[in-house]
């Protein structure tokens, strides 16, 4: 009788040690202390990452078109001003020339400012992306029973089974889709640096 109870106790004990790993395997997720993702692939292959890149490229194209239009208008205005030189009083022409130079300077500054803003948005796109997909990666961290999730580029050597990039892409597309319609730009820190979000530890603490 006691032998039977002992065997039953062993079966229960073994059963208690199985559920998390078994659940992870049923979900197609490897159980590992450390998992890795290819962050560049997440940004380039997910629907949301591709949308962010399309928007940035569209803004770049608009800025190029704007600069081309401004350059063409200024060239025509300069040509007209040159033709007026022989017909204008020196003082009057000098005033027109100074006004034109001031206009060119202002437009150049505006163009440089818009270029910097576009560059900043391009640099912040990965940060915005990670903030939105963070819950999906957090779930993967818990399902795999991992304690850390690393970018593949920072790992010298790893087993392919620890790479969950393909699964992360599938999950992000299913959960996030093309992403939120609007997303406030993260504000830089006082020193100009932008802090990357930390992934929550397993258990959501």
Automatic annotation (TrEMBL):
<dbReference type="InterPro" id="IPR024930">
    <property type="entry name" value="Skp_dom_sf"/>
</dbReference>
<keyword id="KW-0175">Coiled coil</keyword>
<feature type="region of interest" description="Disordered">
    <location>
        <begin position="176"/>
        <end position="205"/>
    </location>
</feature>
<dbReference type="GO" id="GO:0051082">
    <property type="term" value="F:unfolded protein binding"/>
</dbReference>
<dbReference type="Pfam" id="PF03938">
    <property type="entry name" value="OmpH"/>
</dbReference>
<protein>
    <submittedName>
        <fullName>Periplasmic chaperone for outer membrane proteins Skp</fullName>
    </submittedName>
</protein>
<dbReference type="InterPro" id="IPR005632">
    <property type="entry name" value="Chaperone_Skp"/>
</dbReference>
<feature type="coiled-coil region">
    <location>
        <begin position="49"/>
        <end position="87"/>
    </location>
</feature>
